[in-house]
Each structure stands twice: as C-alpha cells, then as structure tokens.
Give the backbone structure.
Amino acid sequence: MGNCPKGQEKQAGLCYTPCEEGYTGVGPLCWRNCPSDFTDTGTGCTKPTYTRGAGTIPTGCPEGQENDAGLCYPKCREGYKGVGPVCWGVCPPGFTDIGAFCQKPAAYGRGAGFVSEQLCLNSNDHGAKTNGCEKYGLLWYPKCDPNYHAVGCCICSPNCPAGWTDTGTGCTKPSYGRGVGTVPSQCPEGQENQAGLCYEKCKENYTGAGPVCWGDCPPGMTDIGAFCQKDTINRGAGTIPPISIPWWLWAIPLIIVLLLIGGFIVRVIFSNRKPPPAVVNISQAPELRPLL
C-alpha cells in the first residue's frame, strides 16, 4: 500500500479527510473530543462531579416580606408590628406591651383645686404657670402636661395614640390582617434553591443536582444524565491509497521489450545471410576425379 494523497490521513489502511480541530477520526466519523476533566468512554464523556454538602431549609422571604415563626408575611406598615397573620399597633414609648393592649405609664394627680383661676396660676402647682389652668366643676385645676388628659377633676392620665381605644389604664391596639403566611423559599446569598432546599451554588461550568455538582456538557453534545453523548461529523468513506511501485519494477517491461526487439533483429540478420559453399568429399564423388 502506498501513502495517502496530500491533505488526507491514513487510518486502518484507508485514506480520509482529516477531522476539524476538536474532533478525532474513527473510520468515516469524526467524534468530538471530551474536555480535559471528563472521562472519554468512546461514544460519550463521563461528567466530573463534586459534592456541595447537605441542603438546608430556606428561611428567606421575597422582597417586601418578613419571616415570622417560620412563615413569610407582607411587612406591616409603619407603626405596626406583625405577629403571625395580624399587624398590631406598636406601643408608644413608656407604655408596656401586654399583647392586644398597651398599659399606660402611671397617671398623676393635679391637686385639690383652687377657687379662682388667678390663685391657680399664682400657685404654679403642677406646672400651672406653664400649662395654664382650667375649671372643672366649681374649682380651677392646673392643665395636664402635654400628651396627658384629665380624668375627672384631679387625675391626669396619659393619652392613647390617635385612633386607639382608651380603656382607662391602657390602650387597645389597632390591628389588621396581612394574609396567610407562605413557606420561605429564599436562600442566603451565594446559595440556590433546589427541590425546596438551599445549596451552595456550583462553580462555573457545573450544574447542581441536589448535593452534587455535575460538569456541564460542551456545546454540541447531548446531556444524558451522568454522561455527555458526543456529536459526530461524517467525513465520507475512506479510499484505498494509490499503489506505490519501486522504480526498478517499472524497468522490467522495458527490458522485456528491448530483449524482444533485440531477438527480432538478430533473427532478421541471420535469416538474410547466404549459407557457405558445400565441401565435396571426392572419395564420395568419383565422377569429379577426372577434373582434378
């Protein structure tokens, strides 16, 4: 067998067009090469893998929501705090939170009263000169401090926030519903949610499947789970290489022809020559003796 023509390669005794870069030829097919960290199985590539740990339950909520007791709810508006599906008003500073109520700070007394406004102002009792005085019944009393109001003649009680219900010693919190909670689905930064659990994100060119990160199939290959099926290019049927004959074999026919021609020439030459005269034995021809 001879060599293949220029621009072709020899494989299993046949000549083929070389495969393009990134492919390896096997007979008439060019198979895509596996990446360096993959294992070549012939028709495919085994994906590389690494583990990323056990998944954890998500605790993060979508934007605009908050986690309360393991469920996500819309955040309450300003001045309210969520407890499960209900948003409750926040107690003012100095008040004690007792669930659905805010217990007031201690009330204070404003004295026994004065018979005239002037006497009340002159006394400066309980800030009368600053706050002024007001009449209740027949007597005058110092006005309550800001954020306080009179209860009866003589007691100043803290005010409840506007819109709240005053119970005397406390304030009933306003409330509104914020819907049914949903299961958290957001994972911490750098993690991803898969099948309801949070895992560390896989490094570049890897895709997570539960606790395992699998190498991505290169473009052109088919993903079949733990393997990547190679794509192929048909480069055509191989051709038989031209027969290479040594130079001296080419000379044999010429030599034979020359020998044939030479033999023919010799035969021609010898066929045209006259035969030499015959030698007569006188003893065998007595009739010639008288001539001697």
Residues 1-47+217-269 form one domain. The chain has a mean pLDDT of 89.
